Amino acid sequence: MADLFIKNGALLEPSARQERLGHLLLRRGEIAKVLATEEEFEKELLELPDATVLDANGKMVAPGFVDTNCQLREPGHEEDETIAKGTAAAVAGGYTTIAALPNTDPPLDTPEGIEYLLQKGIQAGNCRVVALGSLSKGRKGKELAEMGALVAAGAVGFTEATAPLANTELFQRALEYSLMFGVPIFDHPEEPVLSRNGVMHEGAVSLVLGLDGISAESEDVVTGRDIRLAEATGGKVHLLGVSTSGSLDQLRRAKERGIPITAGISPVNFVLTDEVFRSFGSQYKVKPPIRSQDHVDACLAALADGTIDLISSGHSPRAAEKKMQELDQAPFGHSAIETVLPLVGEYLVDAGYLTWLEAIEKMSTTPARLLGLEAGSLKVGSRADITIFDPKQKWVVGPETLVSEAKSSPFSGKELTGKVTHTIVGGRVVYGDI
Q1: CA–CA separation, 177 vs 119, rounded Å?
Q2: Rounded-to-integer distance, Cα 248 and Cα 144, Å
Q3: pLDDT tens string 337-384
Q4: How many Å apart are CA 154 and CA 250, to the nearest integer?
Q5: Does this model's pTM top 0.85?
Q6: Domains, the chain, ranges and CATH?
Q7: Chain centre distance of CA 403
């Protein structure tokens, strides 16, 4: 692997709370040197005349993004997206590592399933892929999967993905067993009895439109349960996606008591409100649902004060023919992994809720720590997983600009500001031209 210089970039190092202009030397898959001055860079370049130079002038250089909430639909749902296509979309969005959810067919509930996913990820040659194993056998919520065997095969955590786990006893046992393996349990907080048949947030808009709603209480109830069981067992719980003010109030109090629970959010839940459903567009049918302005405001405040620990994509691709059905028949899901960066830039950084350093920490350093990965840093000796982006570049979301197989996005046709220009994994440029 050839040596690679990244020069003239704004280096974002969340672990040191530091942003500065500088240069990086990547060698043998690691960050070999961080160079502060042009003189240092020129001296190193003289010693390595065969090295490749990537000019990042006017761009930001960050640790590669890490996603904790991404669906790779293979095996079983290749019409939605394949592992190869999904990982290609991931690097286009700046992601160097993604944790794949187990809602495949068959689900990732056997060592063979975990090994298949990991091997296919390697073969794709894009980003790194790690596996979240199915918490229950067949994702049926009745019997725990063989957690020890799945960890041995490479699982870094367990979840039922977007399927609500109503079996509280099973969830408690999973938390107890997880302590033996040192891995977190990822939960989608939703009480299925309260959300049954819902297609959007339950509120004034759903009432006017005559659409079945998903109540805020359906999330709040399960958030409360998960907090209590995390406290009782000591097991680590991560809420895949939160969207309600009630959940956030509970999380804020739980963190004050030192309970081991974290939470993530996807941009769709802090950018849009349920008013978008007046178009009856199925591209807005996602989980957690897009909620009303008061809940969105609560999410923004929770991102600013640290109640929400990380930002994930919520990438849940679905084939075009599925999303073209009537709203009540269309599946939940959207193509999301390529639009995270510009939405974070416009709605969080430019709006003053976070700095770029804080945003990158929530997109890279914190999710890497949650997954137990050696990632999320630009320090010397760190893995050379790096994202370079232009915070001012404009582009329009659409079928021609999205790499993902699934083109259904709540932001289709919208001009966004902020674009990944290069993604580097293990010192190798996997996205962008040199």
Answers
A1: 27
A2: 29
A3: 999 999 999 999 999 999 999 999 999 999 999 999 999 999 999 999
A4: 33
A5: yes
A6: 4-61+382-431 (2.30.40.10), 64-371 (3.20.20.140)
A7: 17
